[in-house]
Amino acid sequence: MASPSHVLRVRSLYKRVLVLHRFLPIDLRALGDQYVKDEFRRHKDASPEETRSFMSEWESYKDTLQSQIVELMANPERSVKFGADLPKQKLSDFQDEQIGQLYELLLESTKPNRQFNIQEETK
Fold this sequence. Notes:
By secondary structure, the protein is mainly α. Helix content is 67%, strand content 0%. The protein is built from 5 helices and no strands. The protein has helices at 4-21, 26-42, 48-74, 88-93, 96-109. Helix 1 runs antiparallel to helix 2 and helix 1 (4-21) runs parallel beside helix 3. The longest helix has 27 residues, at 48-74. The termini are far apart.
């Protein structure tokens, strides 16, 4: 069983990523939220080695997204590209299943007509 401090760290990261997703365009937010939930659920019983790698990558994602959102808030008239390029070295470390998931995510996020047709709530 995981230590209470580890569980707290995982929950904190999970919640922070979902909070940061609130600043994404609505269709990317829906896609990202679902992906985060699936990935954290999928790694719930991961080995300690997988968990270290998992947490490190999600911390890096959080930091990257947070800096991009800060940039967007500082310059709202500028267009900000969310995300980062994936170095070839990291790609070579992926398992076949992960490459498949990444490819599906790429296809979904670059579709002109995404599967999510979500409208912002008007108040």
